[in-house]
Amino acid sequence: MVKYYVTSQIYFLIFQMLTSLTNKELKAYAKAGAVAEEVLGAIRTVTAFGGQLKECERYVLSRHTKTRTGTRGSTRPSFGMT
Fold it and tell me: How do residues 53-68 score in pLDDT, each as one tens digit?
């Protein structure tokens, strides 16, 4: 009986971790999308002031956050399942 209780608690913790990481990944993805939408909406202004590199770096940084969060989300549960 104790074995099933402990196992269920472990699965619950893994579920909570996955939920948290998925939410973080979705927020990071939304942020990257917002950056892209903002830049594409004002492409003339960005080009006129020579801000292409700055905006590109801002987009890449927001994508890096998403990638890092997604990598954590995909590797951690596998450690708990083995």
Answer: 999 999 888 888 766 6
